[in-house]
Amino acid sequence: MDSSVHKDLQILKHAVDNAVEGFVTIDENHNVIFFNKAAERIFGYSKDEVLGRDLDEVMSPACSKNHHEAVARYVETRTPTRIGHESEMIATRKNGETFPALISFSVTELEGRLFFTGIVRDLTETKKLQEKLIRSEKLAGLGQSVAEITHEIKNPLMLIGGFAQQLSRTITDRKDLRKVQIITREIERLERLLAELRDYYLPSSIAAEKVDLEDLKEDTLSLIKKECDVNHVQVRFDVAERARFVIGDANKLKQVLFNLYKNSIDSMEHGGTLTISARPAGDGSVKITIADEGCGIPETDRDSIFSPFFTTKSSGTGLGLAVSKRIIDQHKGGSLSVESEEGKGTTFTITLPSYHDDLGAGEEESRQ
Asked: I need a surface site. Which of 19, 226, 231, 244 has the fewest CB within 10 A?
């Protein structure tokens, strides 16, 4: 072989081996003869595990059956069906995890032998972005509707509430007074619901500033002191010095912490300890945990607790945790997760980027 041709082939092989897409080539007997680095990353198999073996071993049963039939049909008829076309399908990784993939097929005939190549793109992140965009578009539409509805409802509620409070100061009959007090409480509940609807469907911009968790401690614990005393809940606050400062929106974080504290206190009907701690995560972030000794969350409910309007409380709106997650997700690098065990308690974990004193002013401003 001419040296220049050999060099060109080596360059081509290197390029394909390091392509972003997965390249998987089999012969007409379905044995794998090429498996590039991207294919290793996508499917979770090393090249040594699959080369020379049947492709069935890295495919889901449904995909394998269809692929066998397509290869056999082409070998017999030389008529392409999927070849030259892109198809979306659900593929399977080595660990059993399924994922959406876009696959295109080509065929090459060399010296009377047929070779089939599948070019694979993992669509996991693409699908997530698409879903996020759809959710954003839906929320934008809902946000406009919520803004209009809350505007129309808020003013009449304020009038009714004002009149109810005036009446409560003049009524002497105990039964009538109780009825007016019920009206006042329900109006307050509806006003809270409207506020939470606005927070969820009309999220405001998030500041990116230096936040001192010790300051948040003083501000937030004062809000729950009375409830803790009534419910016999002790509070432990433990912030490591290296985790004291985070980047975030202090006012929004205060709202989130209050929601999580309130949720934890409500779960401890017979008292207990509420433990709030912060530790460096080792990846430039800080993990803040809010752990209670309450009743825990039933396994059937754990996937739904951050969904809007989902609640197990008779008086809850079902928006507190949904709003909290929305706020944390809006923080760059922020996340909110939960772990729970029935009868033992629940732990919420907030992850936020750590603030360092050597962060330049220009960089801090760029985060805003």
From this structure: 226
**Distance set, CA 121 to CA 56, 83, 85, 118, 365 (Å):** 19, 16, 14, 10, 37
In Å, what is the CA distance from 184 to each residue of 117, 152, 191? Answer: 71, 19, 11
Residue 160's contacts (CB-CB under 8 Å, 6 or more residues apart) are 183, 187
Cα–Cα separations (whole angstroms), residue 95 to 42, 44, 149: 11, 7, 48
Which H/E stretch holds residue 132? Answer: helix 124-168
Show pLDDT as tens, one digit a residue, over the chain (368 residues). 555 555 655 666 777 777 888 999 888 888 898 999 999 999 999 989 989 888 877 776 656 566 666 676 767 666 666 666 778 888 888 888 888 888 888 888 787 788 888 889 999 888 887 777 666 666 666 666 666 677 678 778 888 888 888 888 888 888 888 888 888 888 887 887 777 777 776 667 788 899 999 888 888 888 888 889 888 999 999 999 999 999 999 988 998 999 899 889 989 988 999 999 999 987 889 999 999 999 898 888 888 888 877 776 666 667 788 889 989 998 989 999 999 988 889 999 999 999 876 544 344 444 44
How many C-beta neighbours within 10 Å does residue 37 have? Answer: 15
CA 260 to chain centre: 17
User: What sign does the CA torsion over 120, 124, 129, 134 have?
Assistant: positive
